[in-house]
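Title: Request for sanity check on F-box domain-containing protein prediction

Description:
We are preparing a figure and want to confirm that the structure record we downloaded matches what your pipeline produces today. Could someone re-run it with the sequence below and paste the raw structure tokens into this thread? We only need the token string, no images.
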Amino acid sequence: METLAAARRAKRRKPEAPESAEQEGGVNISPLRAMSESDSNHPGAEGDEPYVQDTPPGAGGEEGDGVDRISSLRDAILCEVISRLPTKDAARTQILATRWRHLWRSAPLNLDGGDLRTMDVVSGILSAHRGSGRRFRFPAQRLQDHPATVDAWLRSPALDNLQEIDCWTRSIWGPQVLQPPLQPVSIFRFSSCLCVATLSRCHLSDDVAQALQFPKLKKLALQWVRISEDSLHSIIAASPVLECLLLSTVFGFHCLRINSASLTSIAVGHADDGYETRVTFLEEFIIEDAPCLKRILYHRPPQTGMPLQVSVISAPNLETLGCLNYSDYCSWLALASMIIEVPLAYRF
């Protein structure tokens, strides 16, 4: 009986924790530190349920140990992170620590010229940058006001291998829009590496546009652009991986036929206040062969006084077809041999 009672007492007694992992001949792989003697008064210390104490922040181990692990990453990784920040935030990384001081000037440049106060700042950044280019954004108005400066920007080695260009504009109608300046030839030195392109308030001449190749271009937006039908067809044909196409107030032709094996989304529109009878705008939009096309969206405000005729001959994966506003004056849609009349009393 005494032996049985002693065995029961030994079973209830808790095993003592080793002073260190090495005493057990093992390796301590737990980030939790051993509890101090004062922790023995916690609730449940003498009970049957085990008690687990949360490690306070900064108590040691893998997390909260005060070590700057981000700065220990390779330069290539840090430069990739910096290149995805807005321009001002990327520039501020130079003051984080000595480790970061040189990174922004060598990271792929993400430069937003519309976010900076003066053109001299843009020129200064481009002249000081030692890395390649990732994204360049600037107002299209600069093409008209300062064409030589824009041309110098685009020729800068800091923009070599540029992946995205965004020449943006606000939808403001004016007589100068009818005679937009020619797009600088220097902008097309990126044609072999561009993945995303927005071109606005410019004229794309036939001799330049029809000689271009865009092997990596996936997204293209043309806004307030004068271009011929042949040139636009040539650009689409020269973009074998083009997925998204936006045509907003594009003029110079009245009919566009789409043949593309890669396009998935197309949007065609016209500015609300940008109609001019002296200019030829798009009136007929025909999808002849687009096996991957899923979405067609169009916008034609009533003040244009003319409908946009949309025809779909072959688009087997088409999921969405419709206008972007309730007051569209589209007169008919054609799907293969079926024509859908759209009375003016009904809106999409």
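Thanks, this matches our download. The first helix runs from residue 2 to 12.
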